[in-house]
Design a protein that fits this description.
binds zinc ion; Metal Binding Protein, Guanine Nucleotide Exchange Factor, Chain A; alpha+beta; 5 helices; seven-stranded mixed β-sheet
Length: 240
């Protein structure tokens, strides 16, 4: 006798029938058919699972490509506007784990954050610094755009690009204070006087200059105990 459950309401009748030991219970399917049935069910499950994995992979790939595309668009846009790349979020994360120095221009409209250690801290006597910044020499800390970034008031920042040198000067449109200048590889040179001014006129000890560079181009002799290089770091020392 074949037994089919058509409706939920019939399940009780069927259960009663099955629990009656006087009835022999057999499957309508042979052993082979049952085994084939189970194999097909498993295969069907794996196919659905594989499709799910494939779809998830494609989705992740599309999202990654979209992120890459928009990041590049943003970077290009920033470059076209001749603005320094903003990395305020990165700087804040960095600042949470590294030492951070915060400086402002004279009118307080622009905030510049310096994180971690500078790439260099020198007193530069080169002609280019003199030409760009109009000082006899330049006591400076050098950072990257990741470690020195504008964290507030970027709309007040103006840029002067030297017509001949590969150097730019970033200054406040309102008060004229120079926050930093860049060189040919876009490193950010922050004047030591600006940092000192923002720290009770005391330059943090770990940011003081460790050497003079381009001393052969000087217009003023400096008498101190710091080493003096004729040109860059790897150039011969000045024998005074
Ligand atoms: Zn200002
Ligand atoms: Zn210089």
């Amino acid at each position: 006798m074949n037994l089919w459950v058509l409706l939920d309401t019939q399940i009780e009748d069927v259960c009663t029938y099955l629990s009656d030991k006087n009835h022999e219970i057999t499957s309508g399917l042979s052993e082979e058919e049952l085994s084939l049935f189970e194999t097909n069910a498993k295969l069907s499950f794996y196919t659905v699972f594989n499709r799910f994995l494939l779809a998830s992979g494609i989705l992740v790939l599309i999202l990654a490509l979209a992120l890459l595309y928009f990041t590049r668009q943003y970077a290009t846009q920033q470059k076209q506007q001749n603005r320094p790349p903003t990395s305020a979020v990165l700087t804040r994360i960095y600042g949470a784990i590294m030492k951070t120095y915060t400086v402002h221009c004279s009118c307080n409209r622009i905030e510049l954050s310096l994180c971690g250690e500078p790439r260099a801290r020198v007193i530069c006597h080169c002609i280019d610094c003199r030409e760009l910044l109009d000082g006899p020499f330049y006591p400076v800390t050098v950072w990257t755009d990741q470690t020195a970034s504008i964290t507030h008031g970027e709309s007040n920042l103006s840029i002067y690009k030297h017509p001949r040198l590969k150097m730019k000067k970033y200054f406040c449109t309102n008060c004229g204070e120079v926050l930093f200048n860049t060189n040919s590889v876009d490193w950010r040179a922050v004047p030591q006087w600006l940092i000192a001014k923002n720290h009770n006129n005391q330059l943090p000890r770990e940011l003081t200059a460790v050497t003079h560079v381009f001393y052969e181009q000087r217009i003023i002799d400096v008498s101190d105990n710091l080493p003096k290089h004729l040109r860059g770091f790897s150039s011969p020392p000045f024998e005074g």
